[in-house]
Amino acid sequence: MNVEAYLPLAGKNVVLGVTGSIAAYKAADLASKLVQAGAQVDVVMTSAAQEFIGPTTFAALTHRPVTVGLFQSNSELNIDHVALALRADAVVVAPATANTMAKIRLGIADDPLGATVLATNAPVVVAPAMDAHMWDHAATARNVEVLRSRGVKFAGPVEGRMASGLSGKGRMAEPAEIVQHVRAALGENGDYAGREVVVSAGGTREPLDPVRYLGNRSSGKMGYALAEAARDRGAAVTLVSGPTALHDPVDVEVVKVETAGEMQGEVVASSREADLLVMAAAVADFRPSARSTGKIKKENGRPRSITLEENADIIASSSGPRLVKIAFAAETGGHVEKARPKLEAKGAAFVVANDLNQPGSGFGVDTNRVSIVGPGGKVEHLPLMHKLAVAHQVLDRALPLLK
Ligand code: CTP
Q: Which of 49, 131, 212, 252 lies at 20 to 30 Å from 222 by C-alpha?
């Protein structure tokens, strides 16, 4: 099963507006990423954008004609000035200069991009790129405020080094991040709209001393995929995450924790008002009874032992008037049998079980082969698939159970 089918971009019409900033070269990468995610991309360029990058680049990447003028002969806008705007599922302006943002605020439609943004009912995502002084100017700040109040979504800008050589806020967000904003915008009215979903991800760390901890090999990939999938279907998502190397997903409230105790506090608190808790985290069952304040020394090779005490069961201790709970179970052999007693012990509607010994499954990899173990001995074995696809399969099964 290919993962693109699970991205909300598959088969969608995205208009990419490119304006006159040096970051326009990054818009080529963005166009390519949108196409790879399955979208049909129509690029509209302002004349200033063409000082930085040519339409041929975008035509080659998108396999579509590029619109550069209101009255150009090869453009659909020639037939109908608003054709692209009406067909669009999303409009993304990246990079968006201060000048373009000001024009969008005022509804100026003297070029095809202005006309498209004015005529569309689709969600609009703007990725500003400008000198930090221009971003900080009261005029720009006010334009951003007005556009936000009209429902325009902003991707960035971010802090960093600018083309001028100065550092500050005004760099365009990275294309991969902008794609996530477009995904979130496309999915905002999805089947999880109005739902609150809490996802836990990654492994917890139980400190022994300031230097060492007891941990596990969880990468967090399954939980992050769940958080992104729920967001892509319109849910308001809280992601309670142990330490991972992954980027924070866009439009998700990310709460970073380290120990099982911290994770319990955050998951229990955010689950109270939530519709769904998906506990994908690999929680340490035990913690060292004592945490040394100084680094533990080897003391001439004398053998040592660590005394452990049990951590509370986070999912079992989470509850709320609407809360439906889904547990995970990563096992080495016999995953279905071992998952069964967890249904009741954890109050879970179903358990997503996987066998870490199976190739392509479990920690660190992008794929997973899971079995969904439900009440009454019901088991569904799913094929090996990308973790984002697994996430959607889990959400598909949870949706009808929500209160
Ligand atoms: N879990 C939890 N709190 C814990 C331990 C586990 O909420 N202290 C959750 C996990 O996030 C997972 C599910 O419970 O969703 C099953 O975790 P697992 O480690 O397989 O179960 P345990 O109850 O710890 O049983 P065991 O390790 O003995 O198999």
A: 212
pLDDT at 302: 74
Q: What is the mean pLDDT of residues 331-356?
A: 91
**pLDDT tens profile 136-178:** 999 999 999 999 999 999 999 999 888 788 888 999 999 999 9
Ligand 1 atom with minimal separation from the 260 CA: 8
Q: Mean pLDDT, the chain, as a whole number?
A: 93
Atom of ligand 1 nearest to the CA of 267: 7
C-alpha–C-alpha distance, residues 31 and 152, integer Å = 20
**CA dihedral sign, ordered 6, 194, 247, 361:** negative
Annotated domain spans of the chain:
13-186, 196-401
Q: Closest Cα partner for 314 from 337, 291, 284, 293?
A: 284
- Whether the CB-CB separation of 55 and 18 falls below 8 Å is answered with no
Residue minimizing CA distance to atom 22 of ligand 1: 285
Q: Which amino acid, residue 29?
A: D
Mean pLDDT of 67-79: 69
| Residue 329 CB–ligand 1 contact under 6 Å | yes
pTM of the predicted protein model: 0.91
d(CA 311, CA 99) in angstroms, rounded, equals: 56
Ligand 1 center to 282 CA (angstroms)? 7
Q: Kindly state which CATH superfamily the domain 196-401 is placed in.
A: CoaB-like (3.40.50.10300)
Q: What span, in angstroms and rounded, lies between the C-alpha atoms of 279 and 83?
A: 45
Q: What is the pLDDT of residue 154?
A: 97
Identify the pLDDT of residue 398.
98
Among this protein's residues, is 216 annotated catalytic?
A: yes
For the Cβ of 328 lying below 6 angstroms from any atom of ligand 1, the answer is yes
Confidence grade of residue 4 (pLDDT, cut at 50, 70, 90):
low
Of all protein residues, the one whose alpha carbon is nearest to atom 21 of ligand 1 is 329
Q: Does the beta carbon of 313 sit less than 6 angstroms from any atom of ligand 1?
A: yes
Written as six digits, the tokens of 319 are 């509850």
